Amino acid sequence: MANDLLAIGAIAWLAAAAIALCGRALVLSRVFLFAGALAALAAALLALPDGTAAVALPTRIAGSAVTFRIAPEAAWLFGFGLVPAALAAALSSPARNGQAGWLCGAALSLIGALGVFGIEDGAGFLIAWEIMSFGGAIMILSEKLSPAGEPVLFMLGLLEAGAIALLLGVALLAASAHSFAFASFAGAADLAAPLKIFVAVLLVIGFGAKLGLLPFYEWFPSAYGAGSGASGALLSGVVLNAAFYGLSRGLLDWAPNQDAGATSAIGIFIVIVAVLSAILTALYAFQEEDWRSLLSFSSAENAAIAVAMLGAALIFRGHAMPALASLAWTVSLLHLAAHALAKGGLFLTADAVYRATGRYGIVHTDLLRRSSWLFGLGTLFAAMSLAAMPPQAGFVSEWYMFETVFQGFRLDTLTSRLVMALAGAGLALTVAIGFATYIKVFGIGLLGRSAQKFPPVGAGYSAAIGLLGLGVLALAVGMPWWLDALQNAVATQFGTHAAGDMHDGLLLVPLTAKFAFISPTLLVVVMPLLALLPLALVLASRRFAVRRVPIWYGGFDQDPARASTTALTFSNALRTFYSFIYRPTLETTRDSGAAPHYFVKRLVFSHDVAPIFGPYLFAPLTRATCALADRFKALQSGNLNLYLALIGLILVIILALTLY
How many Cβ atoms from other residues are within 10 Å of residue 512's Cβ? Predict the structure, then answer.
């Protein structure tokens, strides 16, 4: 049944892409896109907790049959990623032009993601991976919300660098296993330990390019910032989850794990890279003043947290601690599920802000007061989850994360214990910055009073955002039952029952209630009771007169617009403290026109933070590539004799390789 629904979803997406390419009946294309997402979502739910049966696809690649199967963890990640994707498909992009291109790109992204989650063959997997990337580029380019040519080229350049690393890693595993079938990769035990580590690094580079691990996160703000929130909901949900699933599969299933020392070394490397990525992306997210760019950095941050837990799972596996390894891996799945729902809700909020105000800037809009309660509830729950506030799902996953890291003292090597301790400190810093980031987003972007009266958020956006916010709460409250859905996945991967041991009735525990425990399920019942006390105080205060006095404003008349906190002033203290990372730039330009300089007509202030890897890594590579292209441009001379000579030389090389 689940496979039938997945087939229906794929056919619906193909129909949506085909109709969109025709440029007509775009409403029908949107219906197909939404219906396909619903069918695939139903299939993912039905696939839990056992996954789907393996089926042979009606196609062959390189003479080999292609097998398709959705594993339980793939169904988990795919299903939670599809929830915001379906709502984004229903609402579509807010861009006035380019709807056809956006629908086509969204359909291709979902088709590619389905292949990444299910194809059991290396060649087919790589094709699906490229389709997923290509669809994302089409979405952003078609919207034309801002100049997207250079950001998309930068994105594709880094993604293709990752794709080359992924291709090489898969080729090395296939050469060792003498097959492109994933089932044969783990048997490639003849790989030496250094080569195993090299393959793992290639996989981290390949999948990390889409996950936003350093240095690849620098394409996130420009590419996401050139598209809409609907594009961001797809890219940060189902596409990001697909990339993590590929990395998890590559490191836990494909790469041989017979060497405990190599496994631990790979885990230590991944934890270091992931924690550094999380810290840097959290710091840069805090400084952004555009909804899409801030949320994109936050997506990279949350992906890095999940990858850090994957690295911890490898460290525990290398030390023969399968229970703790399965705990860390399960936490990464929980974290990405919570992230997909909450981040999808805020990306759709960004589109709602754009439709109401005409821009994506994080400025005072007063939309929370002017819009429906469902919109406010959804945005509040989503922001609380991403800020790791109880009782939301983000709080649960990050509580589990710290409980996992704290158990690093059980490791028997100093290096591993030290790495886990430092990782805990780095993740604590990340979470603290994330908390401040979403206070800024919610407080300034939605609560801030504005002198300009913007229209309220529409009913469609309010319903979609409210549904996602309630979904975040439902994930947290139902965690004791959701964990049971991952039981078979954990048992297959690690041979333990850790998912079941992560709750004791309605209490959530890190394998044992003697270490620590929380209960969002009970907290949801207790919190309304605790709210009775402040409500009683509010009612009691009405019996006393409240004296209101104006705020002292330096002796001048009050100007709420000038006195209010902006995104810049809110984040300036941290920018100053971490100036060695941000390297902030401030520029003030005085426009005097034809008059002398002391008659100022306009004063222009601009500020920015400098990227770390752009000027020192990507810019030199760009210059080197341009220099090589300038040297080899003679090959494009148009001389037919030169082209024939090159073809003849290539034929001679091929013949020589064949014979010798």
Answer: 12
Instruction: Tell me the per-residue pLDDT of 238-278, one tens digit each, with 9 for 90 and over.
Output: 999 999 999 999 999 887 666 788 889 999 999 999 999 99
Residues 6+ apart with CB under 8 A from 269: 197, 200, 201, 204, 311
Burial 526-565 (b: 16+ CB within 10 A, else e): eeeeeeeeeeeeeeeeeeeeeeeeeeeeeeeeeeeeeeee
- Let me know whether 221 and 363 are in one domain: yes
Do 475 and 617 lie in one domain? The reply is no
Element (H, E) at 68: strand 64-68
Q: How many domains does the chain have?
A: 2
Residue 521 lies in a domain: no
Q: Is position 16 within any domain? A: yes
Contact 289, 606 (CB under 8 A): no
Q: Give the chain's count of helices (H) and strands (E).
A: 30, 6
Question: Whose CA is closest to 72, among 53, 95, 98?
Answer: 53
Domain finish residue from 497, 521, 539: 497
pLDDT digits (tens, 9 = 90+) for 41-55: 999 999 999 999 989
Distance CA(366)–CA(444), nearest Å, equals 9
Q: Is residue 511 part of a domain?
A: no
Give the domain extent around 422: 2-497
In a shared domain, residues 16 and 138: yes
Among 497, 526, 543, residue at a domain's last position = 497
| Its pTM surpasses 0.85 | yes
Domain shared by 480 and 593, yes or no:
no
pLDDT digits (tens, 9 = 90+) for 571-600: 888 888 888 888 888 787 777 666 556 677
* φ and ψ at residue 606, rounded to 5 degrees: -135, 150
Mind listing the pLDDT tens digit for each residue in 81-117? 999 999 999 999 998 888 999 999 999 999 999 999 9
Contact predicate 401/335, CB 8 Å: yes
**CA angle at 412 for the pair 323 and 422, rounded to the nearest 5°:** 85
Decide if 320 is inside a domain.
Answer: yes
Rg (CA), the chain: 26
